[in-house]
Amino acid sequence: MRIKSSHIKNFRSILDVEIEFDSLTALVGRNGAGKSTILKGTELFYLTNPRLSPEDFYNRDVKSPIEITLTFADLDDDEKERFKSYIQHSELSVVRVLTQTENKYHGSALQNPEFKPLREKNTSAAEVKEAYKHLREGNYQDLPAYTNRDAVPIVIKEWEEQHSQSCVRERDDGQFFGFKQVGQGYLGKGTRFLLIPAVREAALDAHEGRGSAITELMDLVVRKALFEKEEVKSFREQMEKTYNELFDPSKLKELSTLSENLTNTLRTYVMNASVNVSWDTAGEIAIPQPRANIQLVEDGFSSEVERTGHGLQRAFVLTMLQHLSAPQIESSSAQNVKHPDLVLGIEEPELYQHPSRQRHFANVLGKLAANQIPGVARKVQVVYATHSPLMVSLESFDQIRLVLKIEKENDKPKVSKVIRRTLDDVAKSLAVAYGGNPQFSGASLKPRLVTLMGPLFSEGFFADVVVLVEGEGDKAAIVATARSIGHELDSNGIAVIPCIGKSNLINAAGVFKTFGLPTYVVWDGDSHLGQTAGKCGSCGHDLDSKADPNENHRLLRLVPEPLRWPQHG
């Protein structure tokens, strides 16, 4: 089962946000927008014993509960059977409600509110029959005739599945048991969330100790298999037998002598008392477990983890936790064990990596999400929050989620907002530039963006304001002019992006405006620059041989501005 969406309410900077998850989802946006809050909010759904403080509630409003609703899709047959009473259209929705005193999971399903009297547990059979008859005589004449009370839940569920547009999501009364292995509510068999934070000490995962990744991995993968071997079992049995023979109380005179001496002394106090000293047999003898010694080798040199570079340490953390999520145990008794599907949440996967390694990490995470890397889990879903334009590419465009902070009324703190757009959305927005006539679809637009969507372009997804210019010279002029009057554009979150020509300006503006980012486009009309090439159809002015009135008109429509080109003066 994979997460289709996460709906978070009243958690830190998130007042009410729903975000759709793909097999790979990239959270982008400026610092402090709420990217990490989305990851931690989703993790909060999975935590067994979460600890909350007033700071975890939006605007410290502890009276309003934190709610995390996850909707799961791609359930297997076993999961469909386990959660069949909650599934609607092959999807499972579960909400966790958290206050400082309450912690409950609620199943959620699409239901018709008017059927609520039919679901009341305390309603008698006669009352259910009467309510059903009343509904059937009214707006629900397509319901079958009443037969018995037990058939009613089946009938109304079938109706709701066929009329989902008339339904809203309703919760149960908190009897969905979540991750504890109780009844039919055990989610942990199907899904596991693993958060890799931006700050995690690699050495703690590399040294044996309680809670360390290597200890858990060794216990699950190596030591468990080791102690199931027949040779080890035979060794343990022989050792216990020899031990018990050596320390048989009946063969130790020292025990009987000690008993007699203690008895003689005790009888000076109590005449009819005695002492009998013995000991328990050893039972199962604990065999000391071998401990792991982890060293990393880079460029042929072996070193302790904490003495390697931060980039290698970060890669090691990802590797350890990735494998810990679903260890491949080779013992015969565990071959048929079903591991839960993994949701891997990563803060800044690019941390400590040089540019080419960042691109490589992005490629690896893409393959991991596409299940092209075997031996980790049955299915892996990847969600990462990044600050690197190198982690955002044209190939992952539809998987981008832009996280913004927007103003909230009544002087309340700003709230996070998530925007999702696809290449098809960009293509539709560009239709405005072409006078309302679509020129291409998302698929045909993609080749036009190949040369445009590089790291410099992707910086726009992390900016507060985007300024698009034709070339490097234009960028230099704008940056220098701003600096000369005392403004540093970078410090104000303003990204000036050269687009290598006017034709690319149209596509670039279409991308950023589709995401709702404040976007300014700077270009010149190419008039008065050389040999004339006829008259402008709009104003009759002489045109430069390189000027293309169509490109200028498209940009003016996109901005939007009146079609005044070229400018006179």
* Strand line-up in the sheet with most strands: 2-1-4-5-6-7
CATH topology of the largest domain: Rossmann fold
Beta-strand share of residues: 15-25%
Distance between the amino and carboxyl termini = 65 Å
Count helical runs: 17
Q: Work out the number of β strands.
A: 19
**Please, what is the CATH homologous superfamily of the largest domain?**
P-loop containing nucleotide triphosphate hydrolases
Helical residue percent band? 25-40%
Structural class: alpha/beta
Assign an overall shape: extended
Query: Could you tell me the mean pLDDT?
Result: 85
The poorly predicted ranges are 329-335, 528-533, 536-541
Main sheet attributes: strand count, strand direction, barrel closure? 6 strands, antiparallel
C-alpha-based Rg, rounded: 34 Å
Number of domains: 3
The CATH first-level class of the largest domain comes to Alpha Beta
Topology (SSEs and partners):
Elements: E1 2-11, E2 14-20, E3 24-28, H1 35-46, E4 66-73, H2 77-82, E5 92-98, E6 103-111, H3 116-119, H4 125-137, H5 152-162, E7 168-171, E8 191-196, H6 202-206, H7 213-226, H8 230-246, H9 253-266, E9 295-298, E10 301-304, H10 310-324, E11 341-347, H11 355-369, E12 380-385, E13 400-406, E14 415-420, H12 423-430, H13 442-449, H14 455-458, E15 465-469, H15 472-484, E16 494-498, H16 502-514, E17 519-521, E18 532-535, E19 542-544, H17 549-558
Parallel strand pairs: 3-12, 3-13, 8-11, 11-12, 15-16, 15-17
Antiparallel strand pairs: 1-2, 1-4, 4-5, 5-6, 6-7, 9-10, 13-14, 18-19
Helix pairs in contact: 7-10, 12-13, 12-16, 16-17
